[in-house]
Amino acid sequence: FCIETLQDALMRYGAPDIFNTDQGSQFTTPRFTGILEERQIRISMDGRGRWLDNVFIERLWRSLKYECVYLHAFETGSEPRAGLGRWIAHYNERRPHTALAGRTPDEAYHDVPTPSGPGLTPDQMANSNAVRRAA
């Protein structure tokens, strides 16, 4: 799964200069690191047990668990893959983020201007989210 996701991200977004992960076994295998090395991507790994080194991704995992995983009783192996895929697409493409001045991660990545300017109110955020859901 991790290798498939890495390859998909590289095809979709291109190779970054640096790739940061924790020291989980899925990220330290020769197969995973080899893909990065083949593309001359610098590998960065957080210190063992140092969740604070990667606080932003830890927050993403928290959101994913509380907004998707814990709310669904997935019954087959394919259901979580589909459900997580839908949640991640929503999170990246349609869900505005306060930390990104109301933009989605995709909009921030592609440097799309803020929908209503910086400092969105909760009402503006909700309206922006409703417009994205309708799209």
UniProtKB/TrEMBL annotation:
MF-aspect GO terms: nucleic acid binding
Pfam families noted in UniProt: rve_3
SUPFAM superfamilies reported for this sequence: Ribonuclease H-like
Region of interest: Disordered: 99-135
Superkingdom of origin organism: Bacteria
Gene3D superfamilies, A to Z: Ribonuclease H-like superfamily/Ribonuclease H
InterPro entries, A to Z: Integrase_cat-core, RNaseH-like_sf, RNaseH_sf, Transposase_IS3/IS150/IS904
Biological processes per GO annotation: DNA integration
Compositional bias (Polar residues): 124-135
PROSITE patterns the record matches: INTEGRASE
Domain Integrase catalytic: 1-113
Protein name (record): IS3 family transposase
Species name: Komagataeibacter xylinus
Lineage: Bacteria, Pseudomonadati, Pseudomonadota, Alphaproteobacteria, Acetobacterales
